[in-house]
Design brief:
GO cellular component, one term: cortical actin cytoskeleton
Protein name: WD40 repeat-like protein
Radius of gyration: 27 Å
Pfam family, one: WD40
Largest sheet: 4 strands, antiparallel
Number of helices: 0
InterPro entries: WD40/YVTN_repeat-like_dom_sf, WD40_repeat_CS, WD40_repeat_dom_sf, WD40_rpt
Keywords: Repeat, WD repeat
């Protein structure tokens, strides 16, 4: 039922490299994001699928040389080997070769032996058969966390590892055993990679140097371009070989990626990610070079397409690295998603060619969580955890600070004129009109407000309260609330989200217990019992009505999406829509539902 999946960005951590690895054809790559493994096309970065078999945050994944399997690791030392062909993603085997974070995985050319390295209590790596788990060697010689490993694909088999202890270790195999310790680097060694030809392997580290070694003997050949005046100024976090083994690509903490001509021992080209002085978000922490594309990864999570003919990235693809916490859709054309780390993305739904492309929004708050979002007639309001309200007005590409709310928000609503009402976490209800904040006095309730929504037809404001009631008001020009319409009861827990249907006839209210009540507000509707929808098992995060006002979609902490009907008792079920919970849901057109979740991704469902 899922038609499109717009993937989250790779999760990054300052001072650590990220593994971007490709399938044997070089047209698809995989990376870790939260508890999922993302498989993404290199020829069309909007095309992606996910693997959700891990129960702990994932760290990296790598295709087998045969292309039939993927081995993925997590923060607890678990390695899962699963089917990469077909949609079922069946688990082949699972092992825990080390006790802590998996930093890298390597396969031999026969797709039989796997080397796993990372952090552990006394053991930093292991070599075993992928199906039985039988030991086929040992990883020794390091005194600290191992950051990377690589295996020679030709006989005689060889392998190399690098570590925070400042050394690389060279192994003979199989079975794999220590042959020599390489001590050319000063400081952490972040990456080591065999060339596709297997003639050499190269290492890169915090000293900003790249060393080249003989692939069969482990002898040092030379430092690459020693004495180069335009070398990296700082750590090199990752390296990749060109498919023809003639060039190396390195990712630096100085915000650059550098192409090195190995055959001529010189720097061939530099790509700078920042137009001016680089900032920490421009640090390059991962690279990948295949016959289909050359990409690098910024600390910000941006995926950069590179070329040896361009001084800057050819294209930058952004996305969320952290759970999406709030979202709003404006007119079915612009989707805004905000995440735990404060990142705000805009998705253009007006054209097929731009639908899966996220763009950053100028003026976003940066590193402050987006608590709530709402939109109406081109007005987009964003409430942040630091108590600020920011807004986009129709036609404006940038976010502007609108007002200081004074607290984080539980719920947010906006009307056609851009007036915002927020239910704050400090138990107050406020309105913001043209940048002026007014605290609202509720005339008929002493209970704190927990959810708000505007009827865009009548302008009526619905407010849910902690006492489980939903009441309706008119908001006059003086900022005063007057009771207007019915009082809705029936919830057992406090309402968490409210949504009016586009024609104003229905009000759907979802609560903290996962129950939904749809109330008919039409004349005579009070005589009809409300619709009660109760499949969810946890808090309702979002509700959205279809354009025809006869169906509503619900999103919950339980990770499921359900589509309900006011005319029939049947529902359309979308189980396990997002790992960790669904935070937002929308109906951009009668046949499409869009959801966003704690996995940082956006999904499009045909209904």
């Amino acid at each position: 039922m899922v038609e499109d999946f717009y993937a989250p960005a790779p999760v990054t951590e300052r001072g650590h490299s990220v593994r971007l690895t490709a399938d044997p054809s070089g047209t698809q790559f995989v990376y870790a994001s939260g508890k999922t493994i993302i498989m993404r096309s290199l020829t069309d970065l909007t095309q992606a699928t996910e693997y959700t078999g891990h129960t702990h945050p994932t760290t990296m994944a790598r295709f087998s040389p045969s292309g039939y399997y993927i081995a993925s690791g997590d923060t607890q030392g678990n390695v899962r080997i699963w089917d990469a062909v077909g949609s079922e993603q069946r688990l082949k085997s699972e092992f825990r070769p080390i006790s802590e974070r998996v930093n890298d995985i390597a396969w031999d050319s026969e797709s039989q032996r796997i080397m796993v390295v990372g952090a552990g209590n006394g053991r930093f790596g292991h070599v075993f058969l992928f199906d039985s788990g039988n030991t086929v060697g040992s990883v020794e010689g390091h005194a600290a966390t191992i950051n990377a490993c690589t295996m020679r694909q030709q006989r005689p088999f060889r392998a190399a590892t690098c570590s925070d202890d400042g050394t690389c270790v060279f192994y003979h195999g199989a079975p794999y055993r220590l042959n020599r310790v390489l001590k050319e680097h000063v400081g952490f060694v972040h990456d080591v990679r065999y060339a596709p030809s297997d003639a050499y392997f190269a290492s890169a580290g915090a000293d900003g140097k790249v060393f080249l070694y003989d692939g069969q003997t482990g002898d040092l050949v030379r430092q690459v371009a020693e004495g180069c005046t335009d070398a990296h100024r700082g750590s090199i976090f990752a390296l990749a070989w060109s498919p023809d083994s003639r060039h190396l690509l390195t990712a630096g903490g100085d915000g650059t990626c550098k192409f090195w001509d190995v055959s001529e021992d010189r720097l061939a080209h530099t790509v700078r990610m920042a137009q001016g002085a680089p900032t920490p978000v421009h640090q390059q922490v991962g690279v990948l070079w295949t016959s289909a594309a050359i990409v690098s990864l910024s600390l910000s999570g941006d995926i950069n397409e590179l070329s040896m003919q361009e001084d800057g990235p050819v294209r930058v693809v952004t996305g969320h690295q952290r759970p999406i916490t709030a979202a709003a859709m404006s007119g079915g054309r612009q989707l805004y998603t905000g995440s735990y780390d404060g990142k705000l993305c805009r998705w253009d739904w007006s054209a097929e060619e731009t639908r899966g492309v996220a763009r950053g929004v100028e003026g976003a708050a940066g590193d402050v969580q987006v608590d709530a979002a709402a939109a109406a007639d081109g007005h987009v309001a964003l409430a942040y955890m630091d108590g600020t309200l920011r807004a986009l007005t129709p036609g404006s590409p940038a976010v502007q600070q609108s007002a200081a709310l004074g607290s984080g928000s539980r719920s947010l609503a906006v009307d056609r004129q851009g007036t915002c009402v927020a239910a704050l976490s400090n138990d107050t209800l406020v309105a913001v009109r043209q940048g002026h904040r007014t605290e609202l006095h509720v005339p008929d309730s002493q209970s704190p407000a927990t959810a708000v929504a505007f009827d865009l037809v009548s302008g009526v404001l619905a407010v849910g309260f902690q006492d489980t009631m939903v009441r309706m008001y008119s908001l006059d020009s003086a900022g005063k609330l007057q009771p207007a319409g019915r009082v809705i009861s029936g919830h057992v827990r406090e309402p968490t989200v409210l949504a009016f249907s586009p024609d104003g006839r229905w009000l759907a209210s979802g609560d903290a217990q996962g129950k939904i009540i749809a109330t008919d507000l039409a004349p005579g509707g009070a005589a009809q019992p409300p619709r009660r929808w109760g499949k969810h098992t946890s808090r309702i995060y979002a509700l959205a009505w279809a354009p025809d006002s006869t169906r509503a979609a619900s999103a919950s902490l339980d990770g499921h999406v359900y589509i309900w009907s006011t005319t029939t008792a049947r529902s359309t079920d979308i189980p396990a829509a997002h790992l960790g919970g669904v935070r937002a849901v929308f109906f951009p057109d009668p046949h499409t539902v869009v959801s966003a979740g704690a996995d940082g991704g956006v999904k499009v469902w045909g209904v």
